[in-house]
Amino acid sequence: MKLVVTTLSIVIIILVSSCKKEILIPDIVNRTPPIVYVAGDGSGNYHCDGESDQIEINAALDYVAEHSEYTTVYLKGANTYWIDEPIYISSNTTLEGDENAIVKLIDSANWQKQFKPLIGQKGTIFKVIMLDQSVITHDITIRGFELNGNRVHQSEPSGASCYRMIQLQNCYNVTINEMYIHNGLADGIILEFGVDVNKNETMYDINSKFYDNRIHNDGHDGIYVGQATNFEIYNNIITNTRTDASIRVQNCNDLKIYNNITGNAPDRRMSGAAAVHVMNRGDVITDDIEIYDNFFYGNQDWHGIWLEQLTDGGAGTLNSQTDVYIHNNVISQYKLAGIGIYGFNNTRIENNLIEISAEGAGITFYQGDPINTLLSGFQTFVKNNIIVRNATYGIDNQQPSIHTFVSDYNCINGNISGNYNNVTSTTDIYSDPLLACEYELHDRYYNATSYYIFSPIWENADGQEDGENPVCKTDLGANKGWQIYHLKSENGRWNGTQWVNDTNRSPCIDAGDPASDYSKEPTPNGNRINIGAFGNATEASKTNR
User: What pTM, to 2 d.p., does this model score?
Assistant: First the structure.
């Protein structure tokens, strides 16, 4: 091991496995609040030598936790910090780093332990649910650097909750942003509160934000939040989620999920369940969930947005889970319904574009409360959406005895089994929506050519299987792909760079609900909202009146 000695320093000896590792801890006079620096070139307050680097990082974090004038541990790049045990962060602490600072799990770490994370909070108990709520951590920020799970060089199976990347339990006031998290065997980011011994799941106000992160090749959820209220998940790019969901929230309320891009490589079909999976026990009340302005493209086994009332809890009332607001999303190429609803009431689905579900409908109501089967009166409101090219119906009501779809001012076209199942409408239209990019229908969900809009953009961005290609940090060209869903217009269509004029006009322009807000649409806007994902948006296609 290397030992670097500087002026006014003291040395602490820490046992690592069967050997001794000497780490440098400079005297306080060599530190300038509020930041303590960690580096691999001798320029930091703590020097890492490429072996068990979590020791120096944890020593720096402990120092910050013990000295209130310090707030931040900063990982300097360019450097790879090799860890063989977790990094632990305490309350009132920021862990950040340069973009080219990489924290990476060693080859063959051989932890053989579930729920043990690469980064966790001080006092973590390695259990699936943390029951001891006497240990509460708060005011944690993690940002700016790269976290590499080195999945291809571990022996444990993918998706078995080994080597979670960032796991925070019983924490509030958390911010995780601008991280590049990739190649993990389990979840990318987890924040959850535990339940008590009677499994009473109380939602805790976590006042947290997860944004501007790039999560790629994880073995379970990209971002998971459980038993919590008051948080936002936005501006994240989550790709190649292998199991469950890109974003999953369980027993949560008062949350927003927006401006995210999720998807999988066109030539690889993942077992991931959904882009967004909202899971709630029947007896947990949720009434404030908003999902909007997202771009979800599939190759996953379940739904684009999945609202699921769980069967492993008490029975709910008709309004246990109610008023989820889903709007202005593009949902493309999932196996089952673009939006699948199980036991949620008064769901509002407005101004989305939903297409090419491989084996299902654009929108499906599957069941009511799975325990209290006597409940009836469920409603779902579907308005101003474009629903096209799905394998079965545009809108599918599988429980007409207990549920009603209210379908108004939608454009429904080209769905293989027809427009509706147990649904009627007097205001919907059935014409080709004339989207900016015309492309042929694809009768197979896993036909990779249906993703041609991303090729070779995806190949250039997706990088190698082990994620070493730094281009993985890009946006996969999805922002360009988003532009194909604009409506053609002779009077102006936004192509991502400028306004262009088409030779024809979409029937969805000025065709939405006359009562809907159109104030964000550029003029001229016909004083009426457009149908589709860009209705009442600054990029809405223009009209001639």
Answer: 0.90
